[in-house]
TrEMBL record:
Hydrolase recorded as keyword: yes
Domain of life: Bacteria
Membership in a protein family: Belongs to the DDAH family.
Keywords from the named record: Hydrolase
Catalytic residues identified in the record: 165 (proton donor), 265 (nucleophile)
Organism: Amycolatopsis marina
Biological processes per GO annotation: arginine metabolic process; citrulline metabolic process; positive regulation of nitric oxide biosynthetic process
GO molecular function: amino acid binding; dimethylargininase activity
Name the UniProt record assigns to this protein: N-Dimethylarginine dimethylaminohydrolase
SUPFAM superfamilies, A to Z: Pentein
Keyword Hydrolase: yes
Length: 272
C-alpha cells in the first residue's frame, strides 16, 4: 500500500558535468541544463501527484551535483545524520544541507567524522539500515550511523565501480511492518559474494534485477510502497514489479544520468 512520504530535493539550476568522480561522468560530453531541469521538475511533480510532500533547498553556484540530495543526509525518526563527502568537489554541499535542517527545526543534526555519503549508501528498511561501502562511504561510518541513529546496521560491500553507491544497486520497495517483512530490489552482481549471501538471507523474496535493469540505473528507484518511480529504460524491471502488485512509473532522467544519478539520487527522504 502507498504511504505518504516527505522528500527534500534540490533543483539542478547549476547542473553540469565539470569533473569525473564516477564512471558515468564524462566532462567532454555536452550537458543540457534546461533539459535536466525539466526532467527534475517532472520527477518532483510525480511525487506531488501521489500526495507526497516535497520541500526544496536552494541550489548553490559552483556545486553542480547538489541536485543529488540523497547524498546529503539520512533521517530516521526525525534524527538527522549529515554527510561527509569523499570527493572535494562536493564537500561544501554538506554544510548547506545541515543549515537547511537546522533552519527547519531539526536542531540535533549530527555531522559524521567518517566519510559518509548518506542515502547514497544507506537504505532504511523499517527494521535495519542497509549500509554500503567499497567506493565512497567508509566502513567505519556504518558504526557511526548506528550510534547516531540508534538503529541496527547491516554492512554490504559493493565491488563494481559502475555501482559506486548502494542506491545504484538496491532500493527498498516496502518497509517492514508488524505484519510483513521489508521488500527490496537489487542487482546481485554489484555486491561481494558474502554480501550476496547476506541479502539472500535477509530478503529471500527480493526482486533480483539483471544487467539491463542495472545499466540504466534502474535500481536507483523510489517506492512509496505501491508506486515505484524508475528510469524510463527500466522496462523489464517495471514488468517484474507489476507482477508483484506494484505500480511502476517510468520517468526520463537521461540528462541527470550523465552525472551518474537517477530518481533516488535526487530524493532525500525525511522520516519523522
Amino acid at each position: 500500500m502507498p504511504t505518504p512520504r516527505h522528500y527534500l530535493m534540490c533543483p539542478p539550476r547549476y547542473f553540469a558535468v565539470d569533473y569525473a568522480i564516477n564512471p558515468w561522468m564524462d566532462p567532454t560530453q555536452p550537458v543540457d541544463r534546461d533539459l535536466a531541469l525539466a526532467q527534475w521538475t517532472r520527477l518532483r511533480d510525480t511525487y506531488r501527484s501521489f500526495g507526497h510532500t516535497v520541500d526544496e533547498i536552494e541550489p548553490q553556484p559552483g556545486l553542480p551535483d547538489m541536485v543529488f540530495a540523497a547524498n546529503s543526509g539520512t533521517v530516521v525518526d526525525s534524527q538527522v545524520l549529515g554527510s561527509r563527502f569523499r570527493a572535494p568537489e562536493r564537500s561544501a554541499e554538506a554544510e548547506h544541507f545541515r543549515r537547511w535542517f537546522v533552519e527547519h527545526g531539526y536542531r540535533d543534526v549530527i555531522m559524521p567524522s567518517k566519510i559518509n555519503e548518506a542515502e547514497g549508501d544507506f537504505a532504511w528498511t523499517g527494521r535495519v539500515l542497509l549500509a554500503g561501502t567499497g567506493f565512497r562511504t567508509d566502513p567505519e561510518a556504518h558504526a557511526e550511523a548506528q550510534e547516531a541513529l540508534g538503529v541496527p546496521v547491516v554492512s554490504l560491500r559493493l565491488t563494481d565501480p559502475r555501482y559506486y553507491h548502494l542506491d545504484t544497486a538496491l532500493f527498498v520497495l516496502a518497509e517492514a511492518t508488524d505484519s510483513a517483512p521489508a521488500q527490496v530490489a537489487y542487482y546481485p552482481e554489484a555486491f561481494s559474494p558474502g554480501s550476496r549471501r547476506v541479502l539472500a538471507r535477509l530478503f529471500p523474496d527480493a526482486v533480483r534485477a539483471d544487467e539491463a535493469d542495472a545499466s540504466c540505473l534502474g535500481l536507483n528507484g523510489v517506492s512509496d510502497g505501491h508506486n515505484v518511480v524508475l528510469p524510463g529504460e527500466a522496462t523489464a524491471l517495471a514488468a517484474r514489479l507489476a507482477e508483484r502488485g506494484y505500480e511502476p512509473v517510468l520517468v526520463d532522467i537521461s540528462e541527470l544520468r550523465k552525472a551518474g544519478g537517477g530518481p533516488k539520487c535526487c530524493t532525500l527522504e525525511i522520516r519523522k
